[in-house]
Amino acid sequence: MKEVFTSKRAFVPSGAIAQVIKYGDIAFVSGQISINPETGEVEKGTVAEQTERVLTNIKNILEDMGLTMDAVLRTDCFVSSMEVFDEMNEVYQKYFDKDNPPARRTVGAEVWGGLDIEISAVVGLK
């Protein structure tokens, strides 16, 4: 059975988009961008700062689900240009165990609002 989950400690999308969908033993975290959940403001800093905010949002969601970043099975990273990959990746690596990282897909794409980073995640619930 599909279940919607929402954390107030991360960006909550409006409209017909769930922040998280739990289904069986997995959950799908919708793409997070660099919105500060306390202010509702978009943080348009450096690529590193945007990545830090995005991954903090994902970490907060997982904590509210009783999980850690170790539960992440796969991420989909959308970067405004592959030229920002190294800066994004430097911050990304701080959030995941290098000996047990998630699978990852990184794609150069236009990101909402002219931002540089959007990341979604598939998470194991067991």
Overview of this structure, please?
With 126 residues, the protein is of the alpha+beta class. The protein has a single domain (2-124), classed as 60s Ribosomal Protein L30, Chain: A. The protein contains two helices and six strands. It has helices at residues 47-64, 85-95; strands spanning 2-5, 20-23, 26-32, 72-79, 103-108, 117-124. Strands 1-2-3-6-4-5 form a six-stranded mixed beta sheet. Strand 4, helix 2 (85-95) and strand 5 (103-108) form a beta-alpha-beta unit. Helix 1 packs parallel to helix 2. The chain is globular. The two termini are 16 Å apart. The mean pLDDT is 96.
Quickly describe the structure.
By secondary structure, this protein is an alpha+beta fold. Helices cover 23% and strands 29% of the residues. Strand 2 (20-23) and strand 3 (26-32) form a beta hairpin.
